[in-house]
Amino acid sequence: MHILIINGPNLNLLGKREPEIYGKVSFDEHLKNLVQQFPNIQLDYFQSNHEGALIDKLQAADGIYNGIVLNPGAYAHTSIAIADCIRAISVPVVEVHLSDISKRENYRRRSYTAEACASCITGKGMKGYDEAIQFLTSFH
Ligand code: DQA
C-alpha cells in the first residue's frame, strides 16, 4: 500500500510554530514514528506553502497512491480550488488538523476541503496522522 502525506502552508514550521497549539514535535520527527509504526506501508511526504503546488501534487497522485493524508493548513478554510481537486481525483483523501478547528476562531470552523474528503480528523495532534493512515488502511 502506498500513501502520500501532504502538509500545507506553515506546517514546515511544526515544532517551532505556536507550540502551545501545535506541539513541540517537528513533522520530520513524527514521520520517523510513522515509518516505524507502519512498516508495510510505503509512505511519501510532500509539503508546500503554495496552493497551486498542493493542487499539482494532488492531481499527480491520482492513480499512483492508494490514499492521501492531507493537512491543508489555512487553505482548508479558503480553498474551493483544493476542494474541487479532491473531488476530481479518485484517490481517497483524509483530512487532518492537529488542533480542534471546531473549537477555535469562527473563521476556522468551516473546512471546504474536509467537505470533499472521505473523513476528517481534528484535535488529536500528531496522532491524527496515525489515525488517518489507519483509516485509509481499512478503506483499502
Ligand atoms: C491547522 C489548522 C488551521 O486552521 C491552521 O491554519 C493551520 C494548522 C491544524 O493542523 O490544526 O495551519 O491545519
Please render the helix and strand layout as text.
Elements (H helix, E strand, L loop, with lengths): L1 E6 L11 H4 L4 H11 L4 E6 L3 H11 L5 E5 L8 H9 L4 E5 L8 H4 L9 E4 L4 H13 L1
Structural write-up:
The relative contact order is 0.20. This protein has one domain: 3-Layer(aba) Sandwich (Rossmann fold). Helix 3 packs parallel to helix 4. Strands 2-1-3-4-5 form a 5-stranded parallel β-sheet, sandwiched between helices. The protein is globular and about 35 Å long. It has 140 residues and is α/β, with parallel strands linked by helices. The chain has 6 helices and 5 strands. The structure holds 1,3,4-trihydroxy-5-OXO-cyclohexanecarboxylic acid. The site of 1,3,4-trihydroxy-5-OXO-cyclohexanecarboxylic acid has 10 residues, from loops. 1,3,4-trihydroxy-5-OXO-cyclohexanecarboxylic acid is lined by residues 10, 71, 73-74, 76, 97-99, 101, 108.
